[in-house]
Write a structure and sequence with these properties.
CATH topology: Lysozyme
CATH class: Mainly Alpha
Number of helices: 8
Radius of gyration: 16 Å
Shape: globular
Strand content: under 5%
Distance between the termini: 32 Å
Strand order of the largest sheet: 1-2
């Protein structure tokens, strides 16, 4: 109810693709799968609620990180996440509201993932020159492009695509075009 446009915008196929894309991105961020896992690696999303050991500390299904995300996300959902960022890992409602906030909110120069998957985003000339065109790949660029996009094949991008295809198959919807961001420059 906090983000009524999610999964309700566009045709039935568009709605299904949005749900599949969200579940794919968040499953990758929280996966516990491995190549030979029972039922395959893509059956193991939503295993971890936080991540340590990197230059940041991510929490929740989208692995929200950094104060420039916690402040605006907290204000949008009415919770002081700067003073209590662990709520994203410990309160399921806060956790998913922050993930939805990230998904639904454009953060210039990036469009929102929602706008991309529902066809509301039109790439500029700069976007096209950077290889950023509508599709699941530009959503990966929005979520983690600075690390995963623009340098050719990347196993993390392939993992996101694997989850996306799995969820699309479950929901009975086609994948659409432009699934990867291998040749997309990250947003500035």
């Amino acid at each position: 109810g906090a983000f009524p446009g999610f999964g309700t915008t566009g045709s039935t196929d568009t709605r299904k693709r949005e749900v599949a894309a969200f579940l794919a991105q968040t499953s990758h961020e929280t996966t516990g799968g491995w190549a030979t896992a029972p039922d395959g690696a893509f059956a193991w999303g939503y295993c971890f609620k936080q991540e340590r050991g990197k230059s940041y500390y991510g929490r929740g299904p989208i692995q929200l990180s950094h104060n420039y995300n916690y402040g605006p996300a907290g204000r949008a959902i009415g919770v002081d996440l700067l003073r209590n960022p662990d709520l994203v890992a410990t309160d399921p409602t806060v956790s998913f509201k922050t993930a939805m906030w990230f998904w639904m909110t454009a953060q210039a120069p990036k469009p929102s993932s929602h706008a991309v998957i529902t066809g509301q985003w039109s790439p500029s000339g700069t976007d096209r020159a950077a290889g950023r065109v509508p599709g699941f790949g530009v959503i990966t660029n929005i979520v983690n492009g600075g690390i995963e996009c623009g340098h050719g094949q990347d196993s993390r991008v392939a993992d996101r695509i694997g989850f996306y295809k799995r969820y699309c198959d479950i929901l009975g919807v086609g994948y659409g075009d432009n699934l990867d961001c291998y040749n997309q420059r990250p947003f500035a």
